[in-house]
Amino acid sequence: MGLKKYREKRDFVKTPEPPESGKKRTDGGLIYVIQKHDASRLHYDLRLEENGVLTSWAVPKIPPLKEGEKRLAVRTEDHPIGYAGFEGAIPEGAYGAGTVEIWDHGTYDPVEMTAEKKIVNIHGGKLDGRYALIKLKPRGKEKDVNWLFFKTK
Ligand code: MN
C-alpha cells in the first residue's frame, strides 16, 4: 500500500504524529505494536512491520487475549515504521484527533503472510502466541477492508 494515504490524510503542521520516516530498524525482530486510540470512537490500532512499513488495522474492541475471542479488524492505511513509538495527543481538527498510547508492543515472527491472510507468532506483553488475521469477503455494499483477528493454536 505504501505511505501515500498516510501522508494525504495528515497535516504535519497540525499533528504531532511522525511524518514519513525512512528509518529502518537494524536490531532483531519485526515490530508488533497496538496503540490505544481514544478518538471520536475508542479503538485499538494493530500494526505489524511488513515490507518497510507498518501494516495497520483498527480493532473496535479490546484485542483478543484468549482463543475463542474473535475481533473485527478494519484495515487502515500503512503507517511509517517510526509510528510504532508514537504516543501523544492529536489536536482537535486534525485527522484522528484524540490521544494515542502504546497498549502493547513487542515483536512477531511471520508464519504465513499473504494479501488475505497473516498468521503470526506475536511476542508482546499482553498478546503472546499465534494469531491469525483473515480478510473477509465483502458482502453487499461493505467495503473491502474487514478482517477477522483472533488467537489460534
Ligand atoms: Mn486510530
What's this, in brief?
By secondary structure, the chain is mostly beta strands. It has 1 helix and 9 strands, in the order αβββββββββ.
Notes on the protein architecture:
The chain is mainly beta and 153 residues long. The protein has one domain. It is built from 1 helix and 9 strands. It has one helix spanning 4-9; strands at residues 30-38, 42-50, 53-59, 70-80, 88-90, 98-113, 117-124, 128-135, 146-151. Strands 1-2-3-4-9-8-7-6 form an 8-stranded antiparallel beta barrel. It starts with a helix and ends with a strand. Manganese (II) ion binds next to strand 2.
Task: Give the SSE order as H and E letters.
Answer: HEEEEEEEEE
Strand order of the largest sheet: 1-2-3-4-9-8-7-6
Small molecules bound: manganese (II) ion
Q: Could you estimate the helical fraction of the residues in percent? A: under 10%
Low-confidence stretches: none
- Number of extended strands: 9
Q: What number of domains?
A: 1
Mean pLDDT: 93
For this entry, give a set of tags.
globular, mainly beta, about 50% strand, about 150 residues, 8-stranded antiparallel beta barrel, single chain
Helices and strands in order, then pairings?
Layout: H1 4-9, E1 30-38, E2 42-50, E3 53-59, E4 70-80, E5 88-90, E6 98-113, E7 117-124, E8 128-135, E9 146-151
Antiparallel strand pairs: 1-2, 1-6, 2-3, 3-4, 4-9, 5-6, 6-7, 7-8, 8-9
Bound molecules: manganese (II) ion.
